[in-house]
Design brief:
Layout (H helix, E strand, L loop, with lengths): L1 E5 L6 E5 L8 E2 L6 E2 L25 E3 L4 E3 L5 E5 L2 E5 L8 E2 L13 H5 L7 H12 L8 H18 L14 H29 L4 H22 L3 H5 L1 H11 L1 H26 L1 H4 L2 H22 L9
Antiparallel strand pairs: 1-2, 3-4, 5-6, 5-9, 7-8
Helix pairs in contact: 2-10, 3-4, 3-10, 4-5, 5-7, 5-8, 8-10
Length: about 325
């Protein structure tokens, strides 16, 4: 069981593994404060982090009566009416466990699983369906809408937790299920690259063009996450929300930006190869759709592995 608990001092959200007893103490990863407070009301008491008798050993439990912390070897477990109870070495009272945080591996630690995500579950069949649909001239125009709608669904499901690629989302009335998710993605792109588009159309080739392109690549992931996860274009338009998202994700956001840059150049390379080689042109849509779904999965995984730093209800 995992509880999302905010720090009472800095409000950072922590994914805390719950205990069977419902008791425990937690140390914030940002401000290093503990809660609940010690009897002396000093929430920054560093003594809690290490054992009272073994100063180099990290503590695993706290005696709330004596305000002393103990490592694993110091605690004693006795059977009380068939239940294991950990007692304090100082006063033999019950100990409150120091609650551990849920361990989350970043997506780049398992690249094989990240890049095969689309090929698991329903994703492989939908990938094949989208590809075949893109080869039919009359209805190929629907392919981008369907792909973007499913990509947003992949992002949101990946942000909720690990698992195989989901089924296609409920289409609802058509607009909310298909058109609106696609419009959110398109809107995120327009917001991120609007200055670059203006320069491209009206300004000609200037030194600002590559600079604005880079700025768009940097802010696009944050705008996309806000538009897809919070389902609010208003928040995606807010520079403050974009900055808070980038700061909250931290180093994970830098890796995500790098993934977007790699995706951008790979997408263009695949398109150029498809134009030059007729035989490869048949498979160009397949590879490009795969890249889109994988990138959106990476975006969702970034939110999931950073959920203790951003408080989003998805």
């Amino acid at each position: 069981m995992v509880d999302r608990v905010p720090c009472p001092d800095c409000r950072r959200i922590h994914a805390v593994l719950g205990s069977n007893t419902g008791r425990g103490v937690v140390q914030c990863t940002r401000c290093r404060h503990w809660w609940p407070d010690t009897p002396s009301h000093d929430s920054t008491d560093r003594k809690r982090a290490y054992c009272t008798d073994h100063r180099r050993e990290p503590s695993v439990a706290l005696c709330s009566t004596c305000d002393k912390s103990w490592c694993q070897p110091c605690t004693k477990t006795v059977n009380v009416q068939g239940h294991g109870t950990t007692l304090s070495p100082c006063c033999r009272a019950g100990l409150d466990p120091i609650a551990p945080f849920e361990h989350v591996d970043p997506f780049w630690s398992n690249l094989q699983g990240t890049f095969t995500y689309v090929l698991r579950g329903e994703g492989r069949w939908l990938l094949l369906f989208f590809w075949l649909l893109s080869l039919v001239p009359i209805i190929a125009i629907l392919t981008p809408v369907l792909v973007l709608a499913y990509a947003v669904h992949v992002l949101r499901e990946s942000a909720r937790g690990p698992g195989p690629a989901p089924e296609f989302p409920d289409m609802g009335d058509g607009f909310n299920g298909l058109v609106w998710p696609a419009l959110r993605v398109i809107g995120a792109g327009l917001i991120a690259w609007f200055p670059w588009i203006l320069i491209k159309i009206y300004g000609g080739m200037t030194i600002l063009e590559p600079l604005l392109l880079i700025v768009g690549l940097v802010v696009f992931p944050a705008i996309l996450l806000l538009a897809a996860c919070t389902q609010s274009i208003v928040r995606a338009l807010s520079p403050r929300s974009v900055f808070v998202t980038m700061r909250g994700l931290g180093i994970d956001y830098l890796v995500l930006v790098l993934a977007v840059v790699i995706f951008y150049f790979t997408w263009n390379f695949i398109g150029n190869v498809g134009e030059l080689m007729t035989e490869a042109g048949w498979f160009t849509p397949l590879i490009q759709i795969y890249l889109v779904l994988t990138l959106f999965h990476i975006c969702g995984r970034t939110v999931w592995q950073s959920r203790d730093r951003i408080d989003w209800e998805i």
